[in-house]
Design brief:
Blueprint: E1 6-9, E2 16-17, H1 19-32, H2 40-43, H3 51-59, H4 63-79, E3 86-87, H5 91-100, E4 104-112, H6 113-122, E5 131-135, H7 145-156, E6 164-168, H8 171-179, E7 183-187, H9 194-200, E8 204-206, H10 209-215
Parallel strand pairs: 1-4, 1-6, 4-5, 6-7, 7-8
Antiparallel strand pairs: 2-3
Helix pairs in contact: 1-4, 3-4, 5-10, 7-8, 8-9
């Protein structure tokens, strides 16, 4: 195992299970748009990608409709959805351990910055994070995983990319890491699976938070 100095973490599906909050917010938005929401399982595909991409791709909304759907999503999310999440097992222990080992830790999420910061405060992550890199408020100018990771790298000020590793649960995280020439750890306990992570080219694949800790000696 090479020695890394900095770890970038995805949020949804990696540090927290945000399924209930995100899918409830999407269902609320669809209803306001005059669309009967499908089952919750059908809405899990909204977890990970930027909202403007998901509403456009999955429902064929034009730009104005997408903006309106995101506005409705936020109505529910800011009041209830942002708090409808749970930590995955072992996450706080993992963050504590990595900090004790001397790692810099950063968040790299496509969630809007105000919501990302509220969640890390609410769940108690903030004291362990050196940097929080998230999507811009409009979720457009800095929303893709590539753009968020570029921002995270700017914040971290680590010039040697071989010392930085990305942890995430979906191909968006792995592909973003590859684009920036970073190694990656794919986690199977989130919303992706081993097949997706292998096909994306994850450097390592683990099944638990404890395995991340063991990997990053």
């Amino acid at each position: 195992m090479k020695k890394y100095t900095t770890v970038l973490f995805d949020l949804d599906g990696t540090l927290i299970d945000s399924g209930i909050g995100v899918t409830s917010s999407v269902a609320y938005a669809l209803e306001k748009m005059g669309i009967t929401p499908p089952s919750r399982n059908e809405l899990f595909k909204f977890i990970g990608p930027p909202l403007f991409q998901s509403f456009s791709e999955f429902y064929g909304f034009d730009e104005n409709e997408t903006d309106k759907a995101i506005e409705y999503f936020r109505e529910y999310y800011k009041e209830k959805g942002v708090y409808e999440c749970v930590m995955y097992d072992g996450i706080i222990e993992l963050l504590k351990s990595l900090k004790l080992k001397g790692y810099k830790l950063a968040l790299a999420t496509s969630k809007a910055e105000n919501f990302a910061k509220e969640i890390v405060k609410f769940k108690g992550f903030l004291p362990y994070l050196d940097y929080v890199a998230a999507a811009s408020a409009d979720e457009k100018s800095r929303a893709t995983k590539d753009a968020v990771m570029e921002y995270a790298l700017e914040l971290c000020c680590e010039k040697d990319k071989s010392k930085i590793i990305m942890v995430g649960d979906r191909h968006f995280d792995i592909n973003g890491a590859k684009k920036h020439s970073l190694d990656s750890i794919g986690v199977t306990y989130g919303y992706g699976d081993e097949k997706e992570l292998k096909e994306a080219g994850a450097t390592y694949i683990v099944n638990t938070a404890n395995e991340i800790d063991e990997l990053l000696k």
